[in-house]
Amino acid sequence: MKRLTFPSLKSVEIIILVFVLAIIVTGFILYYTDVPQFEKYVREDGMVEWMAIIGLVPAAIVCFYRFITLRRYKTWWFLLMVLGLGLLLVLFAGEEISWGQRIFGFSSTSYFAENNSQGETNLHNLVIGGVKINRLIFSTVLITLMGLYLIFLPLLYQKNKKVKSFVDGFGIPIPRLYQVLSILLAFGITSLLPHEKKAELLETAVSLLFFLIIKYPANAGLFKKPGIPPNQ
């Protein structure tokens, strides 16, 4: 019988895992002891929302760094995927804080004032034809894609050579098992919280854990310059 082994994690990985746990536990404690404080904790531009930025922005920086350092060694398809992922993360970060609107105090245009459910300059709160973009795209579609990415893609990557070749050719980071389990656990735990703002806790947890996927994927060797060992 093979002995059960656990992945060797770097200090950054352990710190972020503990940080995510602390964010969720704090949310539960505040909710069950002081609901107004909980709502302050998860409010727009509050502590939890800014913690999400801590995950999204560094992940984007990692992508941009890889694009620059690997531009002489990888195909354009690979580089465009890496760059595109970085830009997508910047988009999510900008949307999360409404592109700094509440920070800098600028007003929304008439279009956003009329069609955004919160009157803010962002896409995810738009309401078009009575349909909330946040619910359609940023919830239903995004959760479906995340489920396929986290659960099915890693399995196919290990079992199917064509899938592995496609993924490696396009520079798609594959999540490690502990990262997948951590996101699923965060989803399960936050779903137990009987408050509509529980989604803010989940978004922050996923943002931080997604940084780990970008920085420490199962196929980390793809993102190293030739001659550099994969574990460095």
Describe the structure.
This protein is mainly α and 232 residues long. The chain has one domain (30-223). The chain contains 10 helices and 2 strands, in the order ααααααββαααα. Strands 1-2 form a two-stranded antiparallel sheet. A hairpin with a 2-residue loop joins β1 and β2. α3 (47-69) packs parallel to α10 and α7 (133-159) crosses α8. The protein is globular. The two termini are 31 Å apart.
List the helices and strands and how they pair.
Elements: H1 11-33, H2 35-41, H3 47-69, H4 76-96, H5 101-104, H6 110-115, E1 127-128, E2 131-132, H7 133-159, H8 161-170, H9 177-190, H10 198-215
Antiparallel strand pairs: 1-2
Helix pairs in contact: 1-2, 1-9, 1-10, 3-4, 3-10, 7-8, 9-10
Structural class comes to mainly alpha
Roughly how many Å is the radius of gyration?
Answer: 19 Å
Query: How many helix segments?
Result: 10
Mean pLDDT: 86
Total strand count, please? 2
The main β sheet shows up as: 2 strands, antiparallel
End-to-end span in angstroms? 31 Å
**Residue share in helices?**
55-70%
What global shape is seen? globular
The total number of structural domains is: 1
Strand content: under 5%
- H/E topology pattern: HHHHHHEEHHHH
Main-sheet strand order equals: 1-2
The low-confidence runs, each spanning 5 or more residues with pLDDT under 50, are none
